[in-house]
TrEMBL record:
UniProt feature, compositional bias: Basic and acidic residues: 269-278
Keyword Lyase: no
Gene Ontology terms describing biological process: response to stress
Keywords: Endoplasmic reticulum, Membrane, Transmembrane, Transmembrane helix
Listed GO CC annotations: endoplasmic reticulum membrane
Protein function: May be involved in the degradation of misfolded endoplasmic reticulum (ER) luminal proteins.
Highest rank taxon of the organism: Eukaryota
Subcellular location as annotated: Endoplasmic reticulum membrane
Annotated source species: Catenaria anguillulae PL171
UniProt protein name: Derlin
Bilayer-crossing regions: 20-41, 53-75, 95-113, 120-138
Pfam families: DER1
Segment forming the signal sequence: none
């Protein structure tokens, strides 16, 4: 039990919170504490009946316990964790911006789609967000080889499309959530990874478009990008002109005097040894 709890705590905090709320919602519906009919997204019930909690619960309820739920929670926890521990390591605010931006864009588009029982309806909004995260991760690992149930092998960028095809095959309907997530993920990937590297007028890079607000960085404990890090640097050596000026200010001895000083020092050293030795040899008794 302790090992299981330790493994749970090893999950990054944002992914852990999202997955925990999803599992908790499934448990409550399985125990019939909540009904799925009171959780899904529907503009009529939200705005006509003032059931505003649906704006929140539609992001965390996927399906009752079953194959669909296990598959979704696996995809959510795996690729969200890979992003949070990889591209967004030590950048929780940036990762939260990706999640919140994907969720808000999903909410806006859901208002434009028809409601149930249309096949294009989007009753639960967690699917597009999960698909968007998977798309971003796949784009950032273009050369990674993957397989689907050990039957088909492909490179990582094709993973979201394979998941959309599998969803259409299992449910026999248009995979609205997966396709919407692909579109949202592509927009984010282009604005975050591609557009800042393009060259604009004057031959300069265009720079980032998606910038995390400062209050989010402070909220998640991420260092703001405009705060410079404290770096201790070794001062560079002085330029040649300054070095010449320092050398010119030093005391110099003329060449003749320098030779005389060196010769005197050598004579003094030799005389010093002879003078010290002679008294000892001449008067051995005094030495005792």
């Amino acid at each position: 039990m302790d090992r299981l709890y330790a493994s749970y705590l090893d999950i990054p905090p944002i992914t852990r919170t999202w997955a925990s709320l999803t599992v908790a919602m499934a448990i409550l519906t399985q125990l019939q504490v909540l009904s799925p009919f009171h959780l899904y997204f529907d503009t009529f019930f939200i705005y006509k009946r003032q059931q505003y909690w649906r704006l929140f619960t539609s992001y965390f309820f996927v399906a009752p316990f079953g194959v669909d739920f296990l598959f979704h929670i696996y995809i959510l926890s795996r690729y969200s964790r890979l992003l949070e521990e990889g591209s967004y390591r030590n950048r929780p605010a940036d990762f939260a911006l990706l999640l919140i931006g994907s969720a808000l864009l999903t909410l806006v588009i859901a208002h434009l789609l028809p409601t149930m029982p249309s096949t294009w309806a989007l009753p639960f909004l967690s699917g597009p967000v999960t698909s968007a995260l998977t798309y971003v991760w796949a784009r950032r690992n273009p050369f990674l080889r993957m397989s689907l149930f050990g039957l088909f092998e492909f490179q990582a960028p094709f993973l979201p499309w394979a998941m959309a095809g599998l969803s259409a095959l299992l449910h026999g309907a248009v995979p609205t959530a997966d396709l919407l997530g692909l579109g949202i993920g592509h927009v984010y990937w282009f604005l975050e990874d591609i557009y800042p590297r393009t060259v604009g007028a004057g031959g300069r890079a265009r720079g980032k478009v998606l910038k995390t607000p400062r209050f989010m960085m402070l909220l998640f404990g991420q260092q703001p990008s405009d705060v410079p890090e404290v770096v201790t640097e070794v001062p560079p050596p002085p330029p040649p002109q300054q070095q010449q000026q320092q050398d010119a200010g030093a005391v110099r001895v003329p060449a003749g005097e320098e030779a005389a000083v060196d010769g005197g020092a050598r004579d003094f050293a030799g005389a010093d040894r002879d003078e010290l030795r002679e008294p000892l040899l001449a008067n051995p008794g005094d030495a005792r």
